[in-house]
Amino acid sequence: MMKKMLALVSAMALSFGLATCAGAAQEDTTEAAALETVTIQSLNAAGEEEDMEVPYDPQRIAILDMACLDILDSLGLGDRVVGSASTSLEYLQDYVTDENIVNLGTIKEADMEAVMACEPDVIFIGGRLSSSYDALSEIAPVVYLSTDTEIGLVESVRKNASTIASMFGLESEVDGLMADFDARIAALAEFAEGKTAIVGMCTSGSFNVLGNDGRCSLIGNEIGFENIGVDSEIDTATHGNEASFEFIVDKNPDYIFVMDRDAAIGTDGAQLAQDIM
Question: What is the pTM of this model?
Answer without folding.
Answer: 0.77
